[in-house]
Amino acid sequence: MRHINNTTSTSSSAVVTRSSVSDFAESFLKFNGRSEGTAIPFVMEEDRSQAEYSVNASRGITRSAMLNSYASESRKPVKFNLHLIEACNYSCRHCFAKFGSRKMLSFDNWRIIVDNCLRAVPGCSFNIAGGEPLLAAYFHDLARYCHDRGSKVSVITNGYLITDKWIRENAGILDTLGLSLDSFDEGTLVKMGRCTRSGKILTAGRIKEITTLVKEVNPDCRIKVNTVVCSLNRDEIVREQIMDIPVSRWKIFKMMSFANDSFNNSDIVISDEEYMRYISNNLGTSPEMLKDENSHIFSLSGTCSVVVEKNLDGGYLMIDANGNLVDNTINTNYVPVVNCVTGDVRDGINRLGLDTELYWSRY
Predict the structure, then answer these.
(1) Is residue 24 part of a domain?
(2) CB–CB of 164/119 below 8 Å?
(3) Which residues lie across from 83 on neighbouring strands?
(4) Would 77 be classed as within a structural domain?
(5) What percent of the chain has pLDDT over 90?
(6) Is residue 131 left, alpha or beta, with left meaning phi > 0 and alpha meaning psi from -120 to 50?
(7) Is 36 within a domain?
(8) How crowded is the C-beta side of 186, counted as CA atoms within 13 Å?
(9) Tens digits of per-residue pLDDT, 183-235?
(10) What is the pTM of this model?
(11) What DSSP string describes 73-87?
């Protein structure tokens, strides 16, 4: 990952690199010893390098222990993404939250999952997602439960269901409010499916109202924007609209190709070159700066950083709407690794195809 302080500059300086995370393994035993025992084999793609696995296994280092210790050293909490619900009030064509879930888990099930995650990774944080998480009747209760357990809580939402009442009830317990904003053009939003069934969208004016009130209720709540780039919005420039709201972090993702029995978004996939051109147009950077690393961080202003990510594979701890810790490195779908209600989350992390270096470079 590269951190660029001036988006118009062609120079860069490394802040967190993949090698620096690898180097951490050298001092790992000073923090955790060999208490985790022999590493459980990881779920990996055939072409994934075996070197990291072999070295870690020989030292008795498991992925869960690595996460715990690196979190302690860096003071960055491990983050689990809780996808409460697959249902959504939008029908975004680029969405990757397709888990094949037939019913929602109960609030009690999600409390068990939170407890199991905290048992596996003490001090972890939780990002509540969907589908559209605000459709879950127990959203507030779950966010409050996580908060009361001492965890930082964030949410990623399309924002359409946010009311002033919701903000007053929830902003105080949120560390971060994440908004999925892929365009500010009504025509583009409708083409993308980022609208209700009747074609209603979240307007720029309402976005400004939401973010302003959130900061009034909780000045410490950070505002994050997620933008997914696909063939439908690849030519747009939205920097000015983003900067018009109090954003702390803007994440720009290249759309992830996803396919299962009922969903396929391959028709709106873009190339790396098209993605880099979008970044260049919006940030004023040279596309050459984006070729070598998968993840980059730019300073857009004194208060806003931009995270640019070309590939999401193996970079998340994701629990799907069925309560499964899932692996997205094996094929174009999600492969369940362990059920977090009934199974051992720590064991699941150790068998997960998680790219720990990429994971830490993102936060």
Answers:
(1) yes
(2) no
(3) 129
(4) yes
(5) 55
(6) left
(7) no
(8) 6
(9) 999 999 999 999 999 999 999 999 999 999 999 999 999 999 999 999 999 99
(10) 0.80
(11) HHT---EEEEE--S-
